[in-house]
């Protein structure tokens, strides 16, 4: 009886504890679990960063569209029936750009995008007397002001790829500010959310009733400027999710299929040209 109990005790002693093989198997399983957890964490973090970048891009799009629409809509605004009798009196001829009564002007320049790629970009100028309707910088005045929207290129000061607005007062002084700028560190594209281009089309109503034709700035004539009734602005934004470190494909996308640019088009009706 005693030898039997001794054998049983010896058997239990041999089976106690964890062997090296069991320990290695447990470590391997733990590493797989940790790898899965880290994968989920980084995937969630990437998704969150992408959503934040896209949200900031949408804010830039909304801001740009709002400022452009509010300013363009006010083209030709003046305190009718008080200081001025009509639009021709409120907005006299000025230099070679502005004919009497003309409140809208645009032109085309050359713009350099990353990679030394040249493209054409438009600028848009609006004349108004912002006594009640604010100008593009949120200011008002009792005299004629010229609001000019343009895109800053990579050699234009400290705010490249920004939508800028400059206000020229009746005295000739100019105040400028970048109203929409890139997102900085948000997203993988350092220019993400910034503006790569601005294209303008002018809707002309020859008979003063409804728009019959849209023209580029180069196609506009003196008579067309007097009959301008709508403005179509297309802004091209840098996609914050486009990997700028990669060489774009022939379709201008990165390896993940993200397009390099995203476009926003806004149609704005001029509301102060009845007089």
Automatic annotation (TrEMBL):
Pfam families documented for this protein: N_methyl
Superkingdom of this protein's organism: Bacteria
Keywords tagged on the record: Membrane, Transmembrane, Transmembrane helix
TM stretches of this protein: 20-42
UniProt name for this protein: Pilus assembly protein PilW
Source taxonomy: Bacteria, Pseudomonadati, Pseudomonadota, Gammaproteobacteria, Chromatiales
């Amino acid at each position: 009886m005693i030898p039997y109990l001794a054998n049983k005790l010896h058997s239990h002693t041999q089976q106690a504890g964890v062997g090296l093989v069991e320990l290695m198997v447990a470590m391997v399983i733990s590493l797989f679990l940790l790898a899965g957890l880290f994968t989920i964490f980084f995937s969630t973090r990437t998704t969150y960063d992408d959503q934040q970048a896209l949200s900031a891009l949408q804010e830039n799009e909304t801001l740009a569209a709002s400022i452009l629409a509010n300013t363009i809509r006010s083209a030709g605004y003046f305190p009718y029936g008080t200081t001025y009798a009509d639009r021709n009196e409120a907005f006299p001829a000025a230099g070679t750009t502005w004919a009497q009564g003309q409140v809208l002007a645009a032109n085309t320049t050359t713009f350099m995008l990353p990679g030394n790629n040249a493209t054409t970009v438009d600028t848009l100028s609006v004349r108004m007397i912002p006594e009640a309707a604010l100008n593009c910088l949120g200011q008002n005045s009792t005299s004629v002001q010229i609001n000019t929207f343009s895109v800053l290129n990579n050699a234009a000061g400290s705010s490249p790829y920004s939508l800028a607005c400059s206000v020229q007062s009746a005295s000739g002084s100019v105040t400028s500010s970048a109203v929409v700028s890139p997102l900085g560190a948000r997203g993988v594209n350092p220019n993400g959310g910034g503006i790569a281009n601005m294209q303008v089309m002018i809707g002309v109503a020859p008979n003063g009733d409804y728009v019959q034709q849209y023209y580029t700035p180069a196609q506009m004539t003196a008579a067309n400027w007097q009959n301008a009734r709508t403005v179509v602005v297309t802004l091209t934004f840098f996609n914050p999710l486009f990997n700028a470190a990669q060489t774009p494909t022939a379709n201008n996308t990165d390896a993940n299929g993200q397009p390099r640019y995203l476009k926003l088009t806004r149609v704005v009706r001029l509301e102060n040209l009845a007089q």
